Amino acid sequence: MLTGLDPAEALANKIEENAKEMRAKGINSREFEFLPDTNKMKATSSEESPAALLELVYSEDKGGSVLAFNKWYWSTYQNRFVSIQRSMSIAKRPGETFVIKLTKAKDDILLSEIR
Predict the structure, then answer these.
(1) Looking at 23-97, which runs of residues are DSSP E strands?
(2) What distances in angstroms separate CA 95 from CA 10, 12, 42, 86, 106, one per listed residue?
């Protein structure tokens, strides 16, 4: 886990790291796990909704797709390395990991799945 970064920045950096390695090694598909910092997620959750909600919001604007956790922490940095072709969201309980799938499509790397 990357420390000092909010969950969206930390995930965007993991996306960057994996996308660069895919390009350098000619890898067509890769999955990786991501566990957000539970202390930072507590600040944006409540007793009624303790989940970590990851949302990828698609925008036709190349730099406009947004990655967000609990509608509080957000990033567009990942757009430098991957394309998001559709909106996606998934909620996890505290301490559960997210699985992110990247897929190569011609010259682009797509963030194709979250689970």
Answers:
(1) 29-34, 52-57, 66-69, 73-75, 88-92
(2) 16, 19, 11, 26, 35
Tokens 């949302």 correspond to 55
What are the residues whose beta carbons fall under 8 Å from the beta carbon of 103, sequence distance 6 or more? 28, 29, 109, 110, 112, 113
pLDDT at position 1 is 47
Residue 23 has a pLDDT of: 96
One-letter amino acid for residue 74 of the chain: W
pLDDT higher than threshold 80 for residue 40: no
Query: Distance between CA 52 and CA 59 in Å, rounded?
Result: 22
